[in-house]
Design brief:
Blueprint lengths: L1 E6 L3 H18 L3 E6 L2 H9 L6 E4 L8 H11 L4 E6 L15 E4 L4 H19 L2 E6 L2 E6 L3 E7 L2 E6 L3 E5 L2 H7 L5 E5 L2 E4 L3 E5 L2 E4 L3 E4 L5 H17 L6 E2 L6 E2 L1
Helix pairs in contact: 2-3
């Protein structure tokens, strides 16, 4: 699934881009989820709600926040989204570098050029998606880079996803999350906690400290296994010249 935003204050052009993408869905059998915005402010507001996209088609000249300002605000929330500017104003090209666009398409856009850029973006996105965690909360689909996740917490019928920026709640089982992430660097330290080992600041036999200062208990039955996994991680990180978790370091911080 590729989640796409189309942002332009011209409803006709938004419709044209939608038609191109619907045609691509039929021709290439892509799973695409499309959302349309008639102003940069609407798109920025969506990001402030925590909604992320894989690909954004963005006009430059719009009322309110223009495409350049919109992209700057988005980059504060999401460094990974691919932005394709679509505009008839090529004189803005130099100003676009700060927003790190993926491509630029000139209006009017021919389908062949649109198809080529979409394929280039899709290949990049599909590669990136293996490193994201996706879930649904309310009516919104959320995707978070796995490296930004501190830990998952079981809370009744819900799972809480803790990141450095904020926490999210959604309906799921921690066992299912653990199974989904079994090939990644997440370790189950307790029936209530699944931690990202890369975001563990310090480790002791009975607890860990996360990089935000939260202290999590390791269940007694899991302690020998967790110690072994942390030692393997610590030594592999040392061999690669990376900074590993502080094994045996004194832990102080906020308990959870």
């Amino acid at each position: 699934m590729i989640k796409i935003a189309i942002c332009d204050d011209d409803p006709k052009f938004v419709g044209d881009v939608q038609e191109y993408l619907e045609q691509l869905k039929k021709e290439e059998h892509f799973e695409l989820e499309l959302e349309c915005f008639l102003s940069g402010n609407e798109l920025i507001l969506e990001y402030e709600k925590g909604v992320l996209f894989d690909l954004i088609y963005l006009d430059i000249e719009m009322n309110g926040a223009d495409g350049i300002e919109t992209a700057k605000q988005i980059r504060k929330k999401d460094y990974h989204v691919l932005i394709v500017y679509i505009s008839s104003h090529e004189e803005y090209l130099r100003q676009l570098f700060e927003a790190e666009p993926f491509r630029f398409l000139s209006k009017p856009v021919e389908y062949k050029a649109f198809h080529t850029v979409f394929w280039q973006a899709a290949e990049r996105i599909l590669e990136q998606q293996s490193h994201y965690f996706h879930f649904k909360t309310g009516k919104s689909m959320i995707k978070i880079p796995c490296r930004d996740i501190l830990y998952f917490e079981s809370a009744g019928r819900k799972v809480i996803v803790h990141t450095m920026q904020r926490s999210y709640e959604y309906y799921d089982k921690l066992n299912d999350v653990e199974e989904h992430l079994k090939d990644m660097r997440f370790v189950r330290i307790h029936k209530a906690y699944l931690v990202n080992i890369d975001n563990v600041e310090a480790f002791q036999y009975e607890r860990v400290a996360m990089s935000d200062g939260t202290i999590l208990s390791i269940s007694q039955k899991n302690r020998p296994r967790i110690r072994s996994e942390f030692w393997k991680y610590y030594h592999s990180s040392s061999e690669m010249g990376a900074e590993g978790a502080g094994v045996g370091a004194e832990i102080t911080g906020k308990n959870n």
